Amino acid sequence: METVIGTIAGALTSISMLPQLIKVIKEKEVQPLSPTMIIVLMAGVALWVVYGIMKSEWPIIISNSFSFLVNGLLLIYYYILKE
Amino acid sequence: METVIGTIAGALTSISMLPQLIKVIKEKEVQPLSPTMIIVLMAGVALWVVYGIMKSEWPIIISNSFSFLVNGLLLIYYYILKE
Question: Which key words are in the record (chains A, B) (predicted)?
Answer without folding.
Answer: Membrane, Transmembrane, Transmembrane helix
